[in-house]
């Protein structure tokens, strides 16, 4: 073969090792080659912009451009760094036999920190960070970047307990730290430990040559891992791990994992199929992860890279967060904290003819202070469907429910049985209900069932809107923040207060958190 194969490579020590390995295998088969280190793309010009070619990989972009410009014939990469979708005109030509797949922990003194509550571990990988925090949630993970030697130097010069490396990278550079252990429990990155050769799709001669050094078993396994990654990733950088191998029984074994960035959530899948029946393995495993909550987790990961545009003054559940429009990046925190009071026994010593309960907090306070048989209430009047549902489930039948306190007061003025009510309320409450009743000669006995404490946080971002659930959530929020954006309110009582501060106030159709979310979504449609 007279053609001289130009092998493109980055000029780092590890990249040069990989390129020389490819060169050695080619030359053993009688093919001549030369290494072409490619350092910068500043003076390279293409006829088409990079986005049209699909060039995205931070570690592969320079070589992709050089190959498309005809400066090199093949490019050598660490396969785990290669985007799952290659640029137009470039294909995977070969994968060498895989090396060590494990992640490796290099520590400074000893391994005692593994059993301690506090330790500092360094890594620049989201996947390693998430898996470490999942296993050691009280540890601190700090960022670490650079080539292998510079990262080892940073470990030595900083007050860290350990750092995580790819075992293959250490081995290929001949670095064997005394204090190091393989992390067999940590699922590696898809295609970790594999070296890949890329070439132009139209260069049939080069593709034929590269096929001679291709390791079929490694190709099968890494292709499954990368397809799994592609089906889950959806364009976002996520903590995803995958490992696939073929055992002596010719069975393809796969294990995949998806985590939240902080490691608090983990979804795993394991599957074994006969070799030859593995075509749908990646699809099956990705679908399994998605079905177990992976889609929600990936959506949250994608949103985490965006700026918050909606703030909720009540902590939202995961199920509620799933309801938002895809353009919404919501942050939530309880703007008020509730402290239940101990209600004196004398309050319920005798049967109470008319009782008013305007929140679920008052129900909780009553049930904390008394047993159900002690709550001898003849007529119970309440505000809100959920409060009604809670009362009827835990105390007794509700005589009448209104959507807000003012409407309840207007109903009682006309239909109350008697001229006296007992109102279980908060230390912070609006005056509408007691004022209307008093003006109409109905005596109101107020019992402070719970205390409402302002606990809002300062929100740094410019928001499109804020979700409010009571007048007190508005007051609390405004103690720390300015009234900017839209006020999305759970009901008219809350909206009336919001109108004092916000120009744009919108009210949910029904007084539920889900209805407020629906109101937010309407804004983004």
TrEMBL record:
GO cellular component: cytoplasm
Catalysed reaction equations from the record: 4 porphobilinogen + H2O = hydroxymethylbilane + 4 NH4(+)
Domain Porphobilinogen deaminase C-terminal, first and last residues per copy: 221-273
Keywords: Porphyrin biosynthesis, Transferase
Pathway: Porphyrin-containing compound metabolism; protoporphyrin-IX biosynthesis; coproporphyrinogen-III from 5-aminolevulinate: step 2/4
Porphobilinogen deaminase N-terminal domain ranges (all copies): 5-207
First-tier enzyme category under EC: transferase
Gene Ontology process terms (BP): heme biosynthetic process
Pfam family of the protein (one): HEM4
Alphabetized GO MF terms: hydroxymethylbilane synthase activity; uroporphyrinogen-III synthase activity
InterPro entries in the record: 4pyrrol_syn_uPrphyn_synt_sf, 4pyrrol_synth_uPrphyn_synth, HemC, Porphobilin_deaminase_cofac_BS, Porphobilin_deaminase_N, Porphobilinogen_deaminase_C, Porphobilinogen_deaminase_C_sf
Cofactor: dipyrromethane
Domain of life the protein comes from: Bacteria
Subunit structure: Monomer.
Role: Tetrapolymerization of the monopyrrole PBG into the hydroxymethylbilane pre-uroporphyrinogen in several discrete steps.
Family: Belongs to the HMBS family.
Protein name: Hydroxymethylbilane synthase
């Amino acid at each position: 073969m007279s053609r001289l194969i130009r092998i493109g490579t980055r000029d780092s020590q590890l990249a040069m090792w990989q390129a020389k390995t490819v060169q050695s295998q080619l030359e053993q088969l009688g093919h001549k080659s030369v290494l072409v280190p490619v350092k910068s793309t500043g003076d390279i010009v293409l006829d088409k912009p990079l986005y049209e070619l699909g060039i995205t990989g931070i570690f592969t972009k320079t070589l992709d451009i050089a190959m498309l410009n005809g400066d090199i014939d093949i490019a050598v990469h660490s396969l785990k760094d290669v985007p799952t979708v290659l640029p137009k005109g470039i294909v995977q030509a070969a994968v060498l036999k895989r090396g060590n797949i494990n992640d490796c922990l290099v520590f400074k003194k000893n391994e005692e920190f593994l059993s301690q509550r506090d330790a500092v571990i360094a890594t620049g990988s989201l996947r390693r960070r998430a898996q470490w925090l999942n296993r050691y949630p009280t540890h601190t993970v700090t960022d670490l970047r650079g080539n292998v030697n510079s990262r080892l130097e940073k470990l030595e010069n900083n007050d860290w307990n350990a750092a995580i490396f790819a075992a293959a990278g250490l081995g290929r550079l001949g670095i064997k730290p005394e204090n190091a252990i393989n992390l067999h429990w940590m699922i590696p990155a898809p295609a970790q430990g594999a070296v890949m050769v890329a070439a132009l799709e139209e260069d049939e001669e080069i593709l034929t040559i590269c096929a001679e050094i291709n390791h079929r078993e490694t190709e099968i396994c890494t292709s499954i891992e990368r397809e799994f990654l592609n089906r889950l990733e959806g364009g976002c950088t996520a903590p995803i791990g995958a490992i696939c191998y073929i055992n002596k029984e010719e069975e393809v074994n796969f294990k995949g994992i998806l985590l939240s960035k902080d490691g608090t959530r983990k979804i795993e899948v394991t599957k074994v199929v006969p070799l030859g029946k593995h075509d749908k393995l990646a699809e099956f495993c990705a679908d399994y992860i998605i079905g177990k909550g992976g889609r929600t987790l990936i959506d949250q990961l994608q949103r985490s890279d965006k700026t918050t545009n909606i703030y909720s003054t009540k902590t939202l559940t995961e199920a509620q967060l799933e309801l938002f429009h895809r353009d919404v990046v919501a942050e939530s925190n309880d703007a008020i904290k509730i402290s239940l009071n101990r209600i004196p026994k004398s309050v319920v010593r005798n049967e109470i003819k008319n009782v008013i309960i305007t929140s679920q907090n008052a129900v909780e306070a009553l049930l904390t202070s008394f047993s159900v048989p002690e709550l001898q209430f003849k007529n119970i009047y309440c505000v809100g469907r959920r409060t009604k549902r809670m009362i009827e489930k835990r105390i007794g039948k509700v005589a009448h429910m209104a959507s807000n306190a003012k409407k309840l007061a207007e109903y009682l003025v006309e239909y109350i049985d008697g001229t006296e009510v007992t109102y279980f309320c908060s230390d912070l409450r609006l005056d509408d209900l007691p004022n209307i009743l008093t003006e109409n000669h109905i005596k109101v006995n107020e019992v402070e069932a719970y205390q409402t404490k302002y606990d809002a946080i300062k929100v740094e971002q410019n928001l499109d809107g804020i979700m409010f659930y009571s007048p007190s959530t508005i007051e609390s929020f405004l103690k720390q923040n300015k009234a900017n954006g839209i006020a999305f309110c759970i009901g008219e009582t809350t909206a009336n207060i919001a109108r004092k501060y916000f120009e744009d106030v919108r009210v949910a159709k029904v007084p539920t958190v889900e209805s407020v979310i629906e109101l937010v979504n309407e804004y983004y449609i």
